[in-house]
Amino acid sequence: MTRIAVVEGDGIGHEVIPVAAEALSTLRPDLELFSVEVGYHRWEVTGCPCGDRDIARLKTADAILFGAVTTPPMKDYQSVVLRIRKELDLYANLRPVKEAGFDILIVRENTEGLYSGIEEIGPDRATTLRVVTRAGTERIVRAAIRETKKRRHLTVGHKANVLKSDVFFRTICQEEVMAAGLVWKERYIDALALDLLLHPTEYDVVVTTNIFGDILSDVASYLVGGLGFVPSANIGDRYALFEPVHGSAPDIAGKDIANPIAALRSAGMLLDYLGDSASASSIESAIALVLSRGIKTRDMCGTAGTREFGAAIVRELERAARR
Ligand code: NAD
Ligand code: IPM
Ligand code: MN
Predict the structure, then answer these.
(1) Domain limits at 150?
(2) Residue at which a domain ends, from 214, 230, 246
(3) Is 262 in the pocket of ligand 1 (CB under 6 A)?
(4) What's phi and psi for 56, nearest 5 deg?
């Protein structure tokens, strides 16, 4: 039995994940879905956003479908999603941004860099250490190279003109890319962020460090209609977690207006990871069909609610299964 942990988290996680989970169960009734409750709301109620037992339960799953958690800007609060990424060692964060005409895959290092967690706040000074290791860089660039071999070319995004940690990152990327016999392209991350928007067709796989990948993927979502559309996979050597790139969106939470496409596509990436590419493409086809009928959420200037959009997707998946 393949077991999928389902984490709604906070905010619109409670709205978009039920849609994605229903799509999963419709396509694959054989999957056993079990829910794990973690997040900021849980911290407000119990004082613990995510316990060791929750991490242990997540580790029993074959894959995790994750919504989003609220991470408040507080000194002593640890982000649940960052903890899970670290504890499950989900070092490769794959964020595809594609539409007719371009197909970009952002490969974001997910465990170190500015997110190393080595930091302190003093009365007059605060520091966050940006840690870039050889092992961490080798494994992310190798993951990017594996993806590139299935595709076209690779761009390394960095800020080696300023950051010595990126001189290090760039050098290791260059060594690995040359050893793999691939073409070497690189761009400073600031220029890259604009150029992705201006010339998306010129990019394929883009590998970069943690926070640059975080920012770049939100920026790149502009190319496909915004954050409601971009899914992601967080992959390690043993575990895998699939989540939309967007967050808990407190500004629209509870209003039934969130776009569930990013969550549905994350479920699609999960199915691909399980080796079921047929079901993954059924999700993409159902999205295209539902949109072609004019059923759209508010971010697409439509009037359909999250639930209505989700129901239309599930009807389409059921119809396709009968054909
Ligand atoms: P956000 O992604 O939640 O929202 C940014 C903007 O995009 C908001 O205006 C929101 O309404 C809109 N948006 C996001 N998803 C949408 C969707 N599916 N449909 C329609 N509109 C959508 O980012 P934020 O506001 O900066 O962060 C809110 C909270 O989420 C913060 O606490 C942040 O730390 C957290 N966050 C969590 C994750 C995660 O758990 N993986 C990711 C990003 C942000
Ligand atoms: C993301 C989010 C997270 C990150 C936050 C909420 C910790 O922005 O998944 O893109 O920075 O990685
Ligand atoms: Mn982000």
Answers:
(1) 98-230
(2) 230
(3) yes
(4) -65, -40
